[in-house]
Amino acid sequence: MLSQQILGPVYLVDSPYHGSQGVLGTYVVKGGEPMLIDPGPTTQVPGALEGLRELGIRQLRYVGLTHIHLDHGGGAWKMIEAHPEADVYAHPKAVEHLVDPSRLAASAKQFFGPAFDKYGEVRGLNPMKIQESRNGEVLDLQGATLKVLWTPGHASHGQSFWEPDYRIIILGDCGGSYSRRSGNIFPITPPPFNPDRAIETLDRLIALRPEIVCYGHFGFSYDAVKKLGFYKGELETWAETVEKGVREGLDLSGVWEMLKEQDPILRLSLDEDDSRRRTAIPNIIGLVEYTKWKLKEEAAKSAGSQ
After folding, report:
1. What is the per-residue pLDDT for 87?
2. Which residue of 14, 23, 26, 303 has the fewest CB atoms within a 10 Å radius of its CB?
3. Is 193 domain-assigned?
């Protein structure tokens, strides 16, 4: 079985990624008009479709995207090919990239290198099959309800889905990468990343007092407020440490070494998961670039006031 019920109408589908599971969570909210959230890259869509079959779902109303990074939404075109009755439901800033994903794909190729090919084919969508979200919009799925919350920071086109009856929040990547084994959460901060927006987003999510939090990478936790607060602390530590390192003129490796010294949770995460060690330094580029932008803004303001 690839699917499991979390609570009420919300299900997790653990689609295999080149034979491995526990990589990216696809979520299904099961009503009379069901919604599938984050089909994953094209190579994971067959597993997502199998999960729908296990749940007895023959038709979809929406293919929802928490954001359009290819590991979450790259297979949206393939899902619509299998379910042409559905619409892709995405943030307005995502629409142009869903129609023409060439820039998105080029950026991903530059960031991931040869690993990009594991995502599979990337295709654009017919704009008539895309529905733009509105912040605070309530979706009636005929037996289940979802509220849409724009959650920028990790991505400007980020959005999360709030199920109010069981107080479940489906995040995408704005809550970091969760380890079900240790309970630790690893920041996901690729460029362009905005730590100030990300922390504001977490404050708004914490204020909802959710009970269950669902992560893209990977799984869910019944200790939602504690997990969101923990991640906020990790992001604050990372942002402060990276800024200090950049101000001191350290290169990327130097910033990374400083971060490891300052964050014991990070050291535990790296010991636990080799894949995090491999992607760790590229992952902080977003914070480094944001800090460099911030320093340029400060310099420009200082020059303007003289």
Report:
1. 98
2. 303
3. no
